[in-house]
Amino acid sequence: METKEKNILFVLANRNFQDFEYFESKKFFDKEGYKTKTASSYINEAIGVSGGIVNIDMLFTEVDALLFDAIIYIGGQGVIMLWDDWRAKNLSTIFLNNKKIVAAIGSGCVIISNAGMLTNMNATCEKIDEGQLIRNGAKMLDEDIVVSDNIITARSSSAIKIFPSKVIELIK
Q1: What total of structural domains would you count in the chain?
Q2: How far apart are CA 12 and CA 5, in angstroms?
Q3: Which secondary structure element, helix H or strand E, spans residue 28, and what is its range?
């Protein structure tokens, strides 16, 4: 990546990430001229819940937040393995401290919640994960997308039509 403009980082679980959330968001960002990269805990092919395959570009520890405009935590069953991963959580803190956009969808919201990003903040997530966010001090709203400062949370794949555009809106 030559410039630090128009770059988005996706955080994916290596197995069972939510294909639809990732591929639909990526398609939108590509169309809008954004370059995307993926990060995870292992460098390999990540396999989605529906069998989609994504090459992981970098490890969490290799990410330079200054090269990106936003970080997006994708949900899916496999993301539970990252809920308490210190590297995944630390990235949200680094991005926010550098005034970047931190976004999460579905169960990916638990990672940023466990990092302390949602304490006393309005948020949304999958109904099944609400207890995790409430435990960390989030104020749950019954909405598909919630924007609080530089943080975007989205309930689930049902919000995918507006989620990527909200990310770009905040970047601008």
Answers
A1: 1
A2: 22
A3: helix 19-31
54 domain residue, yes or no: yes
Rounded Cα distance, 3 and 76, in Å: 31
- Residues 15-59: tens digit of each pLDDT: 999 999 999 999 999 999 999 999 999 999 999 999 999 999 999
Q: Which amino acid is at 53?
A: I
pLDDT in tens, 108-132: 999 999 999 999 999 999 999 999 9
Q: At which residue do the structure tokens 């809920």 appear?
A: 83
**Cβ contact 65:129 at 8 Å:** no
Q: How far apart are CA 30 and CA 28, in angstroms?
A: 5
Order of strands across the sheet that contains 35-40: 58-59, 35-40, 7-11, 70-73, 101-105, 151-154, 145-148
Containing structural domain, residue 142? 7-171
Beta-bridged to residue 55, according to DSSP, are 45
Q: From its phi and psi, is residue 95 left (phi > 0), alpha (psi between -120 and 50) or beta? A: alpha
